[in-house]
Amino acid sequence: MKIKILHLYPKEMNLYGDRGNILALEKRATWRGIKVEVVPYEPGAKIPSDINLIFGGGGQDSSQSLIEKDLQKIAPRLKELIENGVPALTICGLYQLFGNFFETKDGDRIEGTHILNLSTKAGEERLIGNIVIDSLEFGEIVGYENHSGLTSLGEGVVAFGNTIVGFGNNGEDKTEGARYKNCIGTYLHGPILPKNPAIADFLIERALSFSAGKEIELEKLDDGIEALAHESAVARAKTT
Ligand code: GLN
Questions:
Q1: Is 92 designated active site?
Q2: 87-107: per-residue pLDDT in tens?
Q3: CATH number of 168's domain
Q4: What's the whole-model pTM score?
Q5: 3-state SS of 163-183?
Q6: Is the distance from the beta carbon of residue 93 to the nearest atom of ligand 1 less than 6 Å?
Q7: How many domains does one find in the chain?
């Protein structure tokens, strides 16, 4: 069994340690004897046909503008993979660009892939700080957010979770992130996966099931240390 991860724009889109999510996926797969191949995707590269997991991190407005043209070129292929059930985790900047558009504070509109029916416009203030959300699928999730974008969810996507601490999608409607098929979009940096291992396991399990064409169940790992890290981060977020 193997997971083949398409890592979108690792040079341009890697804010606040988001690359750590790739390390967490690699570790949690290899600890189970699952082979891992990470395919860094840079503008103009080919997307291998056997990708079964997609990851994209956060980025400054300028980085998002830098990748806009190339992202438009691969958007149909990414959309096809997501529609076919390939799992994806997109963080902040690429979460925004998996939506319809991101309009920066200067009024520049950066076109998205239209995979997720959501739109983002920069607000006056940046939304910054520790964040805890409650998600139906994964329980409490903890991370860190830093974005100007205010995201509104449209028809067909549901929130990844609801904010307990922090701003989330827009600091108004208590939603955070978006869920569509096996795609997760979220503002949570951290990186999110080491302290929220159930999400990593979801992505690995969906990737293996996609490639096998049948349901694959992952063996459980001893997540004692991850649980301690999670609880400590949640406690810190709830008391600051
Ligand atoms: N540039 C986007 C914003 O400010 C995304 C930031 C990020 O990826 N942390 O909202």
A1: yes
A2: 999 999 999 999 999 999 999
A3: 3.40.50.880
A4: 0.98
A5: EEECCCCCCCCCEECEEECCE
A6: yes
A7: 1
